[in-house]
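Lab meeting, action items carried over

1. Structure of the two-component assembly. Owner: GW. Status: complete.
Input record:
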Amino acid sequence: MNQRDLSIAEWPLSERARKLTSSAIREILKVTEQPDVISFAGGLPSPATFPTQRIAEAAQRVLTDNPTASLQYSATEGYLPLREWVARRYSTGDVTIRPSQVLITTGSQQALDLLGKTLIDPGSKVLVETPTYLGALQSFSLYEPKYVQVPTDEAGLVPEGLTPELVDDARLLYAQPNFQNPTGRRLPLARREALAALAREGAFPVIEDDPYGALDYRGTPLPTLLSLAPEHIVHLGTFSKVLAPGLRLGYLIGPETLHFKLVQAKQATDLHTPSFTQRVAYEVIKDGFLDEHIPEIRTLYREQCEAMLAALGTHMPEGVSWNRPEGGMFLWVDLPSQIDSMELLQAAIAEHVAFVPGAPFYANEPRMNTLRLSFVTVPPAKIDEGIARLAALIRARI
Amino acid sequence: MNQRDLSIAEWPLSERARKLTSSAIREILKVTEQPDVISFAGGLPSPATFPTQRIAEAAQRVLTDNPTASLQYSATEGYLPLREWVARRYSTGDVTIRPSQVLITTGSQQALDLLGKTLIDPGSKVLVETPTYLGALQSFSLYEPKYVQVPTDEAGLVPEGLTPELVDDARLLYAQPNFQNPTGRRLPLARREALAALAREGAFPVIEDDPYGALDYRGTPLPTLLSLAPEHIVHLGTFSKVLAPGLRLGYLIGPETLHFKLVQAKQATDLHTPSFTQRVAYEVIKDGFLDEHIPEIRTLYREQCEAMLAALGTHMPEGVSWNRPEGGMFLWVDLPSQIDSMELLQAAIAEHVAFVPGAPFYANEPRMNTLRLSFVTVPPAKIDEGIARLAALIRARI
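Predicted assembly:
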């Protein structure tokens, strides 16, 4: 053997690494970074909502008041005052969340990785919505589960679809009940109650991933699954959509017995989430800032959403349908069945407009005539222009 | 079944999660957090070395100059100027490191997790030093390898011990050639060359974990394995020991072919390391700050090390031996063979002094009469007092 044969390309990779392929979204995002593209593809919150000045002040304060603790190694579980803040925020009249149930994570994405580590063996059955969040599929897939899709309709997951046969032997059910990524759908109250009842009866965890719950345009929240079945739900939250994603701060709320395993897994994964960013975030939010700030984000996103709905109504041809989200960052488009949104994307990029095709959001059996539109980062005039271009491309394919 | 039977304690955990046990170090650190304990147990750098003022100024600058980019989602690979800085710093006359080989990680601990994800299958053979870094054992263990210990002596890993039988079918060799945690040993040049030659010939990666290389008391560094076999080494570095660990910033340098898999694994793990901390660190170091700062850390740690060596020489009875580190944060003590350092720790804690027993640092067949002492955070007068107490306990057991 010569030296070339022994290059790293020949190094033995793990089974899971050999299965890794490049993410469709990732490749798309590269293209849409060009400034002249009107991109409805990104999952980025609007930077207009970042409280930069407050974050700058908070950074100064924590480094002045507690320099050592802000820069030293710290507890794997997270900064205690931040965990207490989360526990208070999720406690209601009926339900008390204990700080010992809260784990601070390096973004919600890390919570998904830790749950994969602690709950999924190769071949484990994992139940997901149809479609579901691509980032969760990416995280869980490293632990090589077998995905089973739960039936959904316009209102989201259909609890009656969770037949004994479907749930038999499942390791977990993963769902985003609020303004789901990618569809923007919100699960109605009766379905939440049915799912919570199933969580109480079932012997597997329901993972309630809730990055968008606060972005409820009318301020009429529905109860979380956590509040309906507090001992049987693992709830994931994040500061990415209400503060700033570049801080990479999320949290997991779950029963203490699971918590213990998750903490050990996190210790092995990154020791702890940065002390500095945790303290900065706590300093920003501790006096009620989010209660003023979140309504501003809601107002902005509602207006953005309305601009997109208006543009879709104006430009889209017969045979194209979409939902009217009541919150969040995304809406979901159904195209006539002969149109493949992957092909449409190629054509769209040539016209300097971008979106995410629906296919990668399906664990199995993708519906090729679907796509996701994000409406939060493009100014309304550009939304109209971008949707007009997209509509012309669709019309040409009908 | 009643509801109790269905509590989360009954939820099916993954095989790897069932094997997780609480870390000995973790439990010990809890005890030693009491302020009246003289603790040689911690692996914490001295907070006297944190450049707080510079970090505070940098935080203001990045939030003033680039608020959106500092707070928005960013590339999985890391902040490009920081990757370029790492590449420049590791390039020598003979060896050019490309930014495309550099991945920014959420602390070095995350690099270990990503390497476990991409290189280790259940049952894979992983070669480690005797003893080795406990944090690496914790990370890799989640991927269920079979550990094989490589023989070591006072100078560290013995390359002649890497027999064809020992290395046959190995997935990787993990080593800390500089001032190893836990022993403080530095691998001599001839052994580095032998290991580099083996890396060039072998079909498995050598992971060179180098958190302490910069903390070389005499400023006489030895070449890294990376510089000796640049296409065949995965090198891990960190800002934890030269800037501040609470930022959780590390980096991995490796061949592009592996890099591609690591980036995908990182995307699934935490999307990216915080944009904010990466930009703050770059702002602090970009103009050569570390070249002034590292010599100050070296001087402090050398003086601390000398204080501990003096105390050991004064107080320890015959039959106890230790090494004289030329850098880093730790030294390694051999006790008479009848003394079990786990039992000694129980007695030591009653006397308000703490250390880490050697056993957890062995992948297999622990030597119970060993212990690790950290000398960087305790003031010299307290070092003398703590070592005197420890010596008395040891003397009582001879």
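2. GW to write a short summary for the group page. Key points so far: Chain A is about 40% helix and 15% strand. The longest helix of chain A spans residues 289-315.
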